[in-house]
Amino acid sequence: MIKTMFADLHVHTNASDGKNSPAEVVRLAALAGLRAVAITDHDTMAGVNAAQETAATAGIEVLAGVELSTDYDGVETHILGYYANPAEPVFQGYLKAFKDARAARAQEMVGKLRALGLNISLENVLAQAGPASVGRPHVARALMAAGQINSVAEAFDRYIGFGKAAYVSRLKYRPEEIIKVVIQAGGVPVLAHPGISCKDELLLDLVKAGLQGVEVAHPEHTKEMEHHYRELCGSYGLIATGGSDFHGAGVARHGALGQAVCPYETVIRLREQALSNRRLVTSY
Fold this sequence. Notes:
The protein is α/β, with parallel strands linked by helices.
């Protein structure tokens, strides 16, 4: 596939749980022949500036993005926010709340792991995270570095996966709330990978709440799913996006950079929608 007119709009860096730095991700995207890439780290926009600085010389466009964790009646739902202003006071407050909650969660997991007899400290975990938004992969890597397990998968399977002895739930807002916060910050809210856990009833409820796009192309979506969500986008006037959910080469359950893409015209639509949202917000 010739990708010079395509964009990968779901990419993670080591500002959250990705393997590569923002600069490395941009260079890889340029080598892959992509015209644009969106940095969508979990609950943080800390990697966007570095990516955009590299983009200036790499010949590729970088969209400012974020992937925010929400909960809809027990269903984990992720909202991608594109072009949101991280300095907008209310949105900034939410990003800080996510960051603080992630740190507290890591500390609680460490406590549970130590109670299970595992040799690990919060300092070990934070060393793995560095400046990144700390998460379970950093706990897993700290366990590996301490010789307590043999793989990241083992950490999740035995200790920190959902329902395991050291699992701690993370802070999750309602998706309707996050949709409004993203729009208030001048961004465009898009539902991430609905085929993984989201039923159509939920999707339509989110459309009523102001959702403006759906991630149609994703490595875990079948062709039938893509067709279904593309039709829904057409029916409800939503922007159909796509992205690889890249976390680094060989990371399980995530795609290779550029594996799932959307036309560059999607970037233009997102940008236009963001401008419209900003005009609407400032007119109040």
